[in-house]
Amino acid sequence: MSDNVKLIEVGPRDGLQNETTVLSIAQKVQFIDLLSKTGLKTIEAGSFVSPKWVPQMATSHEVFQSIVRTAGVTYSALTPNMKGLEQAITASVDEVAIFTAASETFCQKNINCSIEQSIERFIPLMALAKAHNLKVRGYVSCVMGCPYEGAISHKQVADTVKQLVNIGCYEISLGDTIGVGTAHNVKALIKGLTNEIDVSQLAVHFHDTYGQALANIYASLETGIRTVDASAAGLGGCPYAKGASGNVATEDVVYMLNGLGLNSGVDLNQLIDAGRYICQQLNRQNGSKVAIAHPTK
């Protein structure tokens, strides 16, 4: 197995969209520009969704046009529908992402359709992305559990993942949306999936609601996973568990990878600086234990 681990920085999108403070374009751009200097190779810089529902992402187009793009860094965006994809194309994004869920109830409540219908809606989007030479990443929410249905079967996760692969997603990020997963179950899920799907097509996206994210990432690495989503300073909350932390902090993941002798290519000190900057702008406590423990300059 490779010693290289690819980190997908989701703070500017998945992190900020769950923060109550709506930042200015300049603040978002500065955050992304700081992240671009850390060695991260992929930064999810925004989302093209309705500003009515996600006001935090209302200025994504302007953000993409204002950031200083670093050579070798992919700047991606979430595009849940055709309109979003069209906006993303005009903003010159490098890559896009779509999302569905492994839970029927969550899918209905989140995007008002069944899992099957969500996949069908993505087919014309995939065609347009291909026409513009844009790679498409897929997210599957609730792979470990659902706030409405409870435990989700591994078969349901596998069925959903395979459908996204079949329509053309190059990689599928397995999302533990409510952070209920534990290492044993994570290993079992991934081992089952890799009987049918190459491990190189899978990524993991753990929320730290119950403090299990790092343990789950470690378990995933042991199964061969080499792509991990994380959010600088642990940005974002879990909307289904009041007061709970959301995304695992990128700083904490990098520290763990360094300790394991695995290479992310990320400069931890510069990453900590980026996380501290955005926490100052949001007037919130840093969600990274590493950043809190790390001595200030």
Automatic annotation (TrEMBL):
<keyword id="KW-0456">Lyase</keyword>
<dbReference type="InterPro" id="IPR000891">
    <property type="entry name" value="PYR_CT"/>
</dbReference>
<dbReference type="InterPro" id="IPR013785">
    <property type="entry name" value="Aldolase_TIM"/>
</dbReference>
<dbReference type="InterPro" id="IPR043594">
    <property type="entry name" value="HMGL"/>
</dbReference>
<dbReference type="GO" id="GO:0016829">
    <property type="term" value="F:lyase activity"/>
</dbReference>
<comment type="similarity">
    <text>Belongs to the HMG-CoA lyase family.</text>
</comment>
<keyword id="KW-0479">Metal-binding</keyword>
<protein>
    <submittedName>
        <fullName>Hydroxymethylglutaryl-CoA lyase</fullName>
    </submittedName>
</protein>
<feature type="domain" description="Pyruvate carboxyltransferase">
    <location>
        <begin position="5"/>
        <end position="272"/>
    </location>
</feature>
<dbReference type="Pfam" id="PF00682">
    <property type="entry name" value="HMGL-like"/>
</dbReference>
